[in-house]
């Protein structure tokens, strides 16, 4: 390939419709990103003498050397202070059969104490955080950085322990504001 070919745009060169649209707002933003299917996880930590948990789909692998993962947590979420103060946390990647768990842990106003009482779980061996039984995979992490990002914090953690099922069930995914199954 010549240098001229390498510099040539690969896609359409016309402006993308709506790219500079002044009517872009939070609702349209959520609608657009709702078109992006994501896995569903439960984040857990232990702070102030009890477990904290929340459903999350803003989870991304960052690096394999070292093993890093990031999560985005809303500043106003009760989980925010718990994860930033604790310094250790867990991720349980949910299977399709765990839809009720995802719904419960995303319910606004649920009791702060005893959130995991009705959910089978065990303690991670590296950090002691709760990890959900039956999850497709679990990870334990130690926080390495917290970055402010608008109305959220980006929490980066190094993986200190992980496990995954040998024969995973169907995955639980979130798409167009609904839980769905990926076979």
UniProtKB/TrEMBL annotation:
Residue ranges crossing the lipid bilayer per the database entry: none
Stretches assigned to the Flavin reductase like domain: 33-181
Keywords recorded for this protein, A-Z: Oxidoreductase
GO BP: pyrimidine nucleobase catabolic process
Claim: Isomerase is one of the keywords in the record: no
GO MF annotations, alphabetized: FMN binding; riboflavin reductase (NADPH) activity
Domain of life where this protein originates: Bacteria
The UniProt record lists the keyword Oxidoreductase: yes
Listed InterPro entries: Flavin_Rdtase-like_dom (IPR002563), NADH-dep_flavin_reductase (IPR050268), Split_barrel_FMN-bd (IPR012349)
Pfam families in the cross-refs: Flavin_Reduct
Protein name according to UniProt: NADH-FMN oxidoreductase RutF, flavin reductase (DIM6/NTAB) family
Organism whose genome encodes this protein: Pedococcus dokdonensis
């Amino acid at each position: 390939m010549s240098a001229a070919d390498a510099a040539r745009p690969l896609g359409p060169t016309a402006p993308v419709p709506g790219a500079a649209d002044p009517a872009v707002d939070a609702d349209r933003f959520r609608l657009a990103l709702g078109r992006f299917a994501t896995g569903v996880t439960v984040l857990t930590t232990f702070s102030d003498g009890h477990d904290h948990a929340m459903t999350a789909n803003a989870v991304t692998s960052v690096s394999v050397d070292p093993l890093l993962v990031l999560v985005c947590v809303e500043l106003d979420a009760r989980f925010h202070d718990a994860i930033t103060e604790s310094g250790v946390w867990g991720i349980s990647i949910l299977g399709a059969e765990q839809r009720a768990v995802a719904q419960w842990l995303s319910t606004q106003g649920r009791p702060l104490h005893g959130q995991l009482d009705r959910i089978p779980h065990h303690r991670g061996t590296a950090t002691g955080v709760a990890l959900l039984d039956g999850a497709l995979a679990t990870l334990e992490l130690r926080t390495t950085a917290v970055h402010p990002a608008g109305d959220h914090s980006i929490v980066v953690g190094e993986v200190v322990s992980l496990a995954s099922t040998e024969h995973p069930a169907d995955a639980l995914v979130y798409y167009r504001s609904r839980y769905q199954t990926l076979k």
